[in-house]
Design a protein that fits this description.
Strand content: 15-25%
CATH superfamily: Response regulator
CATH class: Alpha Beta
Strand order of the largest sheet: 2-1-3-4-5-6
Oligomer: single chain
CATH architecture: 3-Layer(aba) Sandwich
Number of helices: 5
Radius of gyration: 13 Å
Distance between the termini: 26 Å
Number of strands: 6
Amino acid sequence: MSEPGAAVARIGIVEDHLRYRDALRATIDSIDDVVVAWIADDGPDALAKMADDPVDLAIVDLSIPGESGVTLIGRIRSRWPTTACIVVSGHTENQYVRRSFESGAIAYVVKGRPSELREGIAAGRERRRYMSPQLR
């Protein structure tokens, strides 16, 4: 439950799989004081949407068409340093987690775990680092 009068956090989603985008949106729609501002399929689409409509949080899949999600996170953080980036990925290998945090991600959530996504979003709003428990 959020504090009364808390600001609404605006979220951008970068995910190319329709089914998972729908699952992300459903989870986000169940959280108080957050709203999906836009959804992008790939890096260029996300950067164009950020330029027109910057968000507080960007949820980024690592495996998107074109450039990697890691590269996209670095671009977002360099142009919009106040935007917190949260990775959602099926990759659980240490190299992906490490590279994501090095590029500027604040949280890393394993796909398919709605309660962990909620925690990752809360961490992003509070600007504290978060990793899905299985990655620790």
